[in-house]
Amino acid sequence: MGQSLSKIVTYVFLFIMALIVLFPFYWMISSSLKSLAEYRMSVPTFWPKTVMLGNYAEAFTTANLGRLFLNTMYVGIISTLLSLVITVLSAFAFARLEFKGKNALFAGLLATMMIPGELFTITNYQTVHYFDWMNTYKVLIIPFLVSVFYIYLLRQNFLQIPN
Q: Is residue 55 within 8 Å of residue 121, measured between CB atoms?
């Protein structure tokens, strides 16, 4: 009896938590199907009075979402590939190659992880402005290519592989 009551309480709790987590997604989809007047009402409606599927076509044409999607794909693919090359080569160098100051350089690299990312904002802006990269793809790709955390993880992985 106690075990089945415990399961019931657990499942009721999980169901309530699932509703809480999923509600914002429902509200987003529901709001996207409403007319503009219904969306702007002071008392929101839980269900759309009229389902307007044309809102999606209008959003694609008005905001040019197709072009924005292609821009996102381009920046994502290029930055991932370049970051992968830089990360793998750096981690391999720190793991396998012997050169003067390797440990000090790696310690300095790890020390940059202690600096909050917000402090790099002004420096990144000055760099981007100096090289005249404003309104280009470079501004979205180059300042974020190096990930010290991934270099560290991959270096540790390379160190575990026998020569």
A: no
Residue for token digits 């981690």? 91
The CA-CA-CA angle for residues 53, 65, 32, to 5°, reads 30
Q: Are 144 and 79 in contact (CB under 8 A)?
A: yes
Burial of 61 (0-12, 13-18, 19+ CB in 10 A): exposed
Structure tokens at 122: 């002004």
Q: Write out the H or E segment, with its range, that includes residue 95.
A: helix 65-96
User: Can you give the length of the chain in residues?
Assistant: 163
Cα–Cα distance for residue pair 148/154, rounded to 1 Å: 10
Integer Cα distance of 60 and 5 in angstroms? 50
- CA dihedral (36, 38, 41, 46) in degrees, to 10, reads -130
pLDDT tens per residue across span 86-141: 999 999 999 999 999 999 999 999 999 998 888 888 888 999 999 999 999 999 99
- Secondary structure class of 41 (helix, strand, coil): coil
